[in-house]
Amino acid sequence: MAYLVVFAPLIASIIAGLFQKQIGDRAAQIITTGATISAALASVYLLIDVAYGGNARTIDIVSWMAVGQFEVNWAIRLDTLSAVMLVVITSVSSLVHVYSWGYMADDPHRARFFSYLSLFTFAMLALVTADNFIQMFFGWEGVGLASYLLIGFYYKKESANAAAIKAFVTNRVGDFGFALGIMATFAVFGTVKFDEVFAQIPEMSGEILTVFGMNFQALELIAFLLFIGAMGKSAQFFLHVWLPDAMEGPTPVSALIHAATMVTAGVFLVCRCFPIYEVAPDTSAFITFIGAVTALFAATVGLAQNDIKRVIAYSTCSQLGYMFFAAGLGLYSAAMFHLFTHAFFKALLFLGAGSVIHGLHHEQDMRNMGGIYKLLPATWILMIIGTLALTGVGLPIVLGGLGFAGFYSKDMIIEEAFAMGTEGVTFGMFAFWIGITAAALTSFYSWRLIFMTFHGKFRGKEETLKHAHESPPVMLVPLVLLAIGALFAGGVFKSDFVAKGAQSFWGESLPAGAYSDYKYGDYGSGDYTSGDSYGEEDHADESHSEEAGYGDEAHGDDHSERHPTWVLVLPVVVSAGGFILAWYFYMANPHLPGRIAATNGPLLRFLQNKWYFDEIYDFIFVRGTRALGDLFWKVGDERIIDGGGPNGIAATVMAGARRLARMQSGFVYHYAFVMLIGVVVLALVLIAGAGV
Amino acid sequence: MTASMLLADLTLMTPELMLAVGALALLLVGVYWKSELGGARIVMRLTIGLLVLAAGAAIWLAQGDGGDTFNGAFNVDAFSLYAKTAVFFAAAVALLLAFKFLEAEKLAKFEYPVLIALASLGMAIMVSADDLITLYMGLELQSLSLYILAAFNRDSLRSSEAGLKYFVLGALSSGLLLYGASLIYGFSGTTDFDGIAIAAAEAGNNVGLLFGLVFLVSGLAFKISAAPFHMWTPDVYEGAPTPVAAFFATAPKLAAMALLARVLTEPFGAMVDQWQQVIIVLAILSMAVGSFGALMQTNIKRLMGYSSIGNVGYALVGLSSGTAIGVWAVLLYFTLYIIGVAGAFAVILSMRKAEGMVERIDDLAGLSKTRPALAWAMTALMFSIGGMPFLVGFFGKFFVFYAAASAGLVWLVVVAVLFSTVSIAYYLRVVKVIWFDEPTGEFLPAPAGVAFVSRATGLATVLLLPFMIALITLVVNAGGGLGG
Questions:
Q1: B231 contacts B169 by C-beta, under 8 angstroms
Q2: Residues of B in contact with A661 (CB under 8 A)
């Protein structure tokens, strides 16, 4: 079953990729889609088996390499964490495959597209099922490659090529950190297997690693380096620049890779390595900070974008920020929960946007849309569901909370951040307030998107409007399925992910979180026992939450006071505020935005230009690198290395050859002279050598 | 000496006797044959047959125990028999290459094959020499035949010049060699190799003996065209008729190298520390001249001349180890080298255009388009001679370097590899011209014998690979008896 999940997409990809000429587009579509759907069904089975059957296991496939101590296996590690990811990946991937039948119907290179999609799926599956860092890195690079191929799918478009390269290069920066992190792990622990590394953590907590004469806390350093990798893949602040540009790829790709799966790999990495982060408080604080900053930054930029896909891209960036600050605060299961729900509603939004773009014949600028809800009614409703889920609409007090998916996961993160803040966790309060602010902004830009796209008057060309049409069923069915997920994923799975059932659900793969025992009180009752030392370590960490690390004593007693009511209500209130503001600006007074823009020119430009990140990076890195490259090329390589090396040697050789040729005069007496000199020299050598 | 002992001695000399008697008989056949061309043809064929028979006899003898004959003047052992077999086959191939060429160039005279047979006889005696007198006798018989062959195209100024140069310088080298031999005799009191070996072991650093050795080695170095005694090589290769150059590059080189190996390891085996220096100097100079000299050449025959100088240098690297490994590595090296060179000359002999033979490297331009099979063969041969892995030439180079390294001469191996890198440049240039330049004209179809040799050797560079183990076993058996 596990083999089917991981390898079916790979085989399908190979068949579709190598034999596309022979089997044709349709067969390639059927094979890849079929493989992915069967993988999705199998992974649902696996999730049930692993999470509810308690059947976590690692399947060793084959030894990859063994060099001295360094042993790496290909394996499929099945625990709840990876099983959840399997379900997310394969289900979204299947829906995207199906959706692409419609969306890519006119594309002449469909076989290639589907082959790439399946290849990506395989790489992502290899990443999450890894039982060691090296296989994870393989998957990590594999998704990077597939992402590059898919972003640059329209390879004749220059901007698509540039975006693909940008994504690849930016990711390289992160990958470099990740690779260093793996090396540091091996240097400290002598193994790259997760289980073996985590088991050693208690003994290694004081370990110092010396690099270039500087002393580092080994675990902090490893945690930090791994997080650099996560930052690159998950488009966190400083390394986020590639994600908006990646929207050059076909829209289904954006939904699969840049919303639901690949960008969440960073979050997955942090969660997978939570035993390391548990004992690295400084790095965790840094993660919280970066996550929070990203959440806010991306939300502000999202306010001013006009490209429908870019708005959603920044929204993704922002939501990833939420996940990271949750993970940084130690709320790993909450982060995974948000990852899970986010996958559904963000894929829904992306595919919905794709449906709009498809309906309007590749128009992406929201300024050229408006009032099309009558023409695309299904898409309109589905997009609204997605937006409601993203903005976290729900009723906080009633029945212990009732609402869309985002309500459960996002608001939970915000609330728990408050709890952490009151406990004194570094950046806890900071994260809380930023979370609130970003929630308001999220609501504003999301509704702005809906209003600008579907309501008001149509602002584009008449021609476009005349041909505007609703998408075919093959595209709408995946949307409907995702909408169901966006509606119910939060409510249905809440108890398992972060509440009553969390303890047994996650097993040893992830700490269930302090909140799980607060509300239901049966935490640590004894059914949770583990044999090995690392499990017990977790256990201690969990039951006393951050007690060990952060010194909180009061936590055990005042459960009921954990969240003041205003904290529960506030996120919903600010979301509503965002909605009202958006309605006021874009529905009630459509001319207001223009006037505000005119008076606040610099601020708007600042936001529209994404805080000038691209410009700054262009100046520092691109031009700096180019100048450095020129220096190395013209001075270092051409003059010093080539001049003294190959070219210099070649010149010397040729000069020597000419001189030798001149000696070959053709005169017999010259030749005889050389021979006699030779005899004399040989005799001298012999006598000198013999020491006579 | 009783008749039966004489018979036993003569049995061991079967190949030489066959050649000696055969050559004289063929001379008569040639003289009394009615038409000149017909005589040349029949003698040519008969000589090839004779050489193959002689090789067969040598192989037959190799099944026996061998032994010293004529009071220790003539040594028939596995080493000499292996060298003889190789020499005879190389000579036969050289005749095969010469066959049609000579007719086309109006050089088809029956003396040509007879001279080759006599030269082969000389070489056979050289490699079996166990006495300074035998050594000189074989060497001169070989050399005199070669002088004539070099000038065989006597109406051509270049050929006569080459022959004359070779003769004058050869005489000088013979003088050096004889002087060295007389010194050795003077200081050891014997011309017999075994006796010299005893004297050398007792004498230690005897200056007279050392000087004698230097002169002797100098004389032999001329024959293998090791620098600085190489100056004749490019001129003679270029000036002599191409089949003659092909012969020069193969059999005599191997014979002289085998002789040098025997002289150094048998009579002077005890003085290895002294002569090692000399051989190293010769090796480095040869590799340098061979690598750098060839870079500027435009004539492919001159290029092959320099290439042979360089390759002798690599072989000397192996020999400088003074060990048994060095001796068999040299044998292996030259066996593989001869295959490559014979093939390369076969390709050169295929370079005939409507207006006549051409010899410039540029004339090979675009061979890949006009004659793909020939282009593949030449590419494989160039790479093999250059020692590219994984063609057979690589193993030759590998084992001579291995011999030197195992004797502690790692620095010399490093130097040799560097020179080898430089030398790759001109082999690659030939390949580049063949594959990447635009064709300038097409060659006429090559004669069957030439085409066969170029194809067979080209394929051999690859097809011999599975048989490397067998070949190495063979040379280890042959060369293992020599060296310390």
A1: yes
A2: 293, 296
